[in-house]
Design goal:
With about 350 residues, this protein is of the alpha/beta class. The protein has two domains: about 90 residues; about 200 residues, 2-enoyl-CoA Hydratase, Chain A, domain 1, CATH 3.90.226. It has nine helices and 13 strands. It is elongated and about 70 Å long.
Length: about 350
């Protein structure tokens, strides 16, 4: 009997060891390299919009990771892919460790036309974490709205949060209307981003008709699911007077979706410089070593299928501030052009 018990315990031990071995996760640099490309091939919305396939991109670097199989090489490879081959504003390592392991060139935001406005031309009436509003000091009949950030409550599940978010933007516009504005500058020169729903909520306050404004594609296996986005007027709105819509290189992601919606308005003029071309929505992915990276998991385009991926949305009037704006001179050339067009 004891011998039988011993054999049973031995058998269970072998089975347990075998199961534990099967459940062991490979956390090597090579395994994370493979996992990174698995994400690209399955979840990356722009996997077919490069001059190479994701499999071909993987082959470009596989020998490097196989020869070293260390974290420094992995960081070097992923950062090179991020900056060079993909060069997608929505694909980037979101952990500090790989940047600490590898020397990464610094970028001066002023060189990328990403300087935020200084508001010297504005008589400010309201300011919050999400918006700054007022009128143009020299021409008080021109209203001004700067979108600092999109309120995530708009896209949340809390009905109170949605209600309060809507109330804030409606109150801002009602205050401007009470000041007898006849035209507006809507300034999207910020890094405001968010889900597809949030920019739509804000644009509904300006749009003057029901219309498709964006097509979105989600990867599903080897195919894509297509969704047409439609916008209609809602809430307290400024819908009849002329609007100057401002953008620059910091206008990205949700900000570009807002621009797409606003461009469907009849009486709008787009002024500034190209947006970032960070089209679509994003999702966070994890590697086994604890690193996190951001990936574009949907692609967005104009209603007619025109792409703006990486090239941005081009204004009808192109003008931008010099790199020393805010340093040695403080006149906002983009704002000055907008005021001129609205007078």
């Amino acid at each position: 009997m004891k011998r039988v018990k011993y054999n049973i315990i031995l058998l269970l031990s072998i089975i347990s060891f075998s199961c534990d071995k099967d459940l062991m996760v490979d956390t090597s640099a090579k395994a994370d390299f493979d996992l990174f490309f698995e994400y690209l091939e399955n979840d990356y919305a722009y996997r077919d919009y490069h001059s190479f396939t994701m499999a071909e991109l993987k082959q470009m670097y596989v020998s490097q990771i196989e020869n070293s199989n260390d974290q420094v090489t992995l960081a070097t490879i992923l950062l090179n892919i991020q900056r060079n081959e993909l060069n997608d504003p929505h694909v980037y390592l979101n952990s500090s460790e790989p940047y600490n392991l590898v020397s990464v060139p610094t970028v001066n935001p002023l060189d990328l036309d990403m300087m935020n406005p200084l508001f010297h031309e504005i008589t400010v009436k309201k300011s919050s974490n999400f918006y700054l509003s007022g009128t143009i000091t020299s021409t008080p009949t021109i209203g001004y709205l700067y979108i600092r950030a999109f309120n995530s409550d708009f896209g949340g599940t809390s009905s109170l949060g949605v209600q309060n978010g809507i109330k804030e933007i409606d109150n801002i516009l009602q205050d401007l209307l009470d000041n007898d504005i006849t035209s507006m500058i809507v300034d999207m020169r910020s890094f405001a981003g968010g889900t597809s729903y949030i920019p739509r909520y804000i644009a509904q306050r300006f749009i003057d008709k029901t219309t498709p404004y964006m097509i979105e594609h989600y990867p599903e296996g080897s195919a894509f699911i297509e969704k047409e986005w439609i916008i209609e007027p809602a809430g307290t709105g400024f819908r009849t007077g002329k609007i100057a819509l401002l953008s620059n290189g910091s206008t990205a992601s949700g900000g570009e979706m807002f621009v797409l919606a606003m461009l469907k308005r009849d009486n709008v003029i787009h002024i500034g410089s190209n947006s970032a071309g960070a089209s679509g929505n994003i999702v966070a992915k994890d590697l086994s070593n604890g690193w996190n990276f951001i990936l574009t998991n949907s692609r967005t385009e104009f209603p007619d299928g025109t792409q703006y991926f990486k090239v941005g949305i081009t204004p009808s009037i192109i003008i931008k501030n010099d790199s020393d704006y805010g340093q040695t001179y403080f006149n906002d050339k983009v704002m000055e052009k907008a005021i001129q067009e609205l007078q």
